[in-house]
Please model this.
Amino acid sequence: MNVVLGVSSGIAIYKAVDLLSKMRKEGWDVQVIMTENAAKLVSPVVFSAVGNCRVFTDTYEIESGWIIHTELSKWADVFVVAPATANTIAKLANGFADNLLTTTALAFQKSSKIIVPTMNTRMYENPVTVDNLKRIQQLGWYVLEPESGHLACGEVGKGRYPDNEKIIEFIKIIVSEKPLAGRRILVTAGPTQEEIDPVRFISNHSSGKMGYAIARVAKMLGAQVCLVSGPTCLTVPYFLDEVVFVRSANEMYHEVLERAGGYDILIMCAAVADYAPSSRSAGKIKKIEDKLILELVKTPDILAALGQRKKGNQIVVGFAAETEHVVENAIEKLVKKNIDVIVANDVSEAMGKDTNHVYIISRNKAVVEVEGTKDEVAKELLLRICENFC
Ligand code: PMT
Model:
């Protein structure tokens, strides 16, 4: 993907260097345009070195008949302005073309135009900026709202530059095809924790990566997504429609069952504890006896409950984490729990890893083997569900 990164002179400009680096890691081909004032804050050499790319600042720099603004505007698939100052936004909203960035933007005709406004809160909230932001959206620009918090000027308010990971995700969502548009998907992820006393719990090694990948990719492919997550150390995917945090299997059961009716596709990827202590000690259990025997009771089976209650065209997808006879055991679960699809994986290849090796099994027992990063596996799974059921 070809990206033009337009950089104007917000104080957050140093973060745009890292954005460029992250764009490069995504494998995108990037060229940079800096305004004259931006080039006073950070040398174009820094951007050029980090992005291993060309950096343009001057409209009148002619190279053997190559007219920069028309050529770059044709070359780019995506035009991102980060940071976008109030001044640059005002120009873009009103068709000014008085520097290379605004001139190229005016010549850029594709729909993937994105600005990341960052500025002092009072400038951001000034009615003229508010109007310009409205206008720029009417002109087809996507605006990634700034965050609230401490600003470089020492004030606190809205205007902060968002995380670069969030900007990258925003771009990906905008440019992705949307085969899941109109679909509502609920995903569970992560482990559950079953408390023994105020200090200890029973849990498992699920990191949440597989479930989070499904939620993130489903959003990218256009679905409305609710993520119900057990405790994880991961950053929650940006731009999801609802995120519900739970701890125990019981909590997950109630949160999922309460919402399930409102979703077309339910994907139960969480590693829900099968057993929980029959009671939780109010105080910390003392280390007195040589042996401690815990009584465990079965937790409610969320997937089985969904399989029992599913109505109409609702699709219920389960996962099966196995250590042996992976496909056979998964098929047994598919049948027993009355679900549409089961994704079988070997614990040793799946838990905590960034990659996975799965078998996607449907009711007619057709088995499709997929291996790759968890994002790749998630995409393949979602596209197959969409192709076969939607
Ligand atoms: O989180 P990661 O580190 O990325 O690892 C991913 C994963 C290995 C956790 C994931 O790919 C996976 O296999 N998830 C399912 C884990 C599991 O609980 O498998 P199971 O075979 O024990 O359960 C079968 C299905 O029943 C699962 O969909 C599970 O969500 C569901 N279940 C289980 C128990 C219970 N009380 N209620 C349930 O709904």
